[in-house]
Amino acid sequence: MTTIDLAVIPGDGIGKEVVPEALKVLGKALSGTGVEIATTHYDLGAEYWQRTGQALSDEDLEAIKGHDAILLGAVGDPSVPSGILERGLLLRLRFALDHYVNLRPSKLYPGVPTPLAEPGQIDFVVVREGTEGLYCGNGGVVRQGTPQEIATEVSVNTAFGVERVVRYAFAKAASRPAKHLTLVHKHNVLVHAGGLWRRTVEAVSAQYPEVTVDYAHVDAATIYLVADPGRFDVIVTDNLFGDILTDEAGAITGGIGLAASGNINPEGAFPSMFEPVHGSAPDIAGQGIADPTATISAAALMLDHLGHTRPARRIEAAVEADMAGRADGRSRSTAEIGDAIAQALEA
Ligand code: NAD
Ligand code: IPM
Ligand code: MN
């Protein structure tokens, strides 16, 4: 028996509602495979912060480093000042565990209603840099509250950090049928960071002659995602552009409730972390209506990452079968969707 030692962080809001559905589906997908899951729950999030004044203790961080992988729901709550949990918990994990690849696949499944494309026409993956850019916390405020207040937020782009994520993106593109890579940036304005990204892509492309490469400024990329999403295969981009584009990528493929994400440390020096692209959705939390599909698909990404490709494919197939039945537009609860996908695994 192989055991996956899984850290589970349900977090806040709908994170707590969708994670149990993903665990249910994981259990079903692995039954009889010789692989089992041992979970350790970390009750981090708004309540923990209210109680302790900390978003993530050093002890919990060290303990989390010892697991094989992490499944996270979502963090962030209106009762906590903005940024405390997002930076102190989620980004702290991504940075401490060196999740420099944030992998966000987008696929349009048959049955998902959208006027934008036919099923099969959207199938791309965003490789979002996860440890640098505007997310570093490099900045500050002086003269706060005065008319002379100055706020800076400086984007950090290192040759090392850009090169390793660009290399990952090329390898990903080379492994896919279309073998196409699009760099998305804004090098017409952000000439310093954009120049580094562009030169890095040029340099690495010499080692991947089979991969075709193009470029889009991020503003134009938001148009192409809606107007011509079929042009994309692998998109490589920085942390903030990738954040924005992947919410849009969710929206064009049926909704943010379907979009999965892996925060990956490709070398395996630290556990990788799998989560939906969406957040804690305070506007619908507590109602049992959040779509758990994104978190279920994130669990499949996790199995893939850990080398359990067969159960990963089975979860994808179950999700696809469930999507196919959505054309009737009937609304279902979180648990009903989780049950339906778990049941499809029995077939
Ligand atoms: P959000 O992703 O939580 O919600 C955006 C919209 O999408 C809302 O209308 C919400 O109802 C809807 N939505 C999200 N997930 C859904 C699902 N599974 N099913 C159906 N509808 C869904 O983004 P937000 O409202 O900007 O942020 C809310 C909080 O979550 C903030 O504190 C934010 O910082 C945090 N956040 C956390 C993560 C994360 O943990 N990875 C990601 C994004 C936002
Ligand atoms: C996401 C979220 C996070 C991000 C926030 C909550 C830090 O929006 O996972 O997409 O910006 O990366
Ligand atoms: Mn986001």
From TrEMBL:
Necessary cofactors: Mn(2+); Mg(2+)
Record-linked SMART domains: Iso_dh
Residues that hold Mg(2+) according to the record: D219, D243, D247
Alphabetic keyword roster: Amino-acid biosynthesis, Branched-chain amino acid biosynthesis, Cytoplasm, Leucine biosynthesis, Magnesium, Manganese, Metal-binding, NAD, Oxidoreductase
Cofactor mode of binding and number, as noted: Binds 1 Mg(2+) or Mn(2+) ion per subunit.
Record EC number: 1.1.1.85
Catalytic activity as recorded in UniProt: (2R,3S)-3-isopropylmalate + NAD(+) = 4-methyl-2-oxopentanoate + CO2 + NADH
Domain (Isopropylmalate dehydrogenase-like) ranges: 3-341
Pfam family, one: Iso_dh
Site (described: Important for catalysis): Y135, K186
InterPro entries reported in the protein's UniProt record: ICDH/IPMDH, IsoCit/isopropylmalate_DH_CS, IsoPropMal-DH-like_dom, LeuB_actb
Binding annotation for substrate: R94, R104, R128, D219
Pathway it works in: Amino-acid biosynthesis; L-leucine biosynthesis; L-leucine from 3-methyl-2-oxobutanoate: step 3/4
HAMAP family in UniProt: LeuB_type2 (MF_01035)
Family in the record: Belongs to the isocitrate and isopropylmalate dehydrogenases family. LeuB type 2 subfamily.
Function field: Catalyzes the oxidation of 3-carboxy-2-hydroxy-4-methylpentanoate (3-isopropylmalate) to 3-carboxy-4-methyl-2-oxopentanoate. The product decarboxylates to 4-methyl-2 oxopentanoate.
Name of the protein in its database record: 3-isopropylmalate dehydrogenase
Naturally occurring in which organism (per UniProt): Actinomyces capricornis
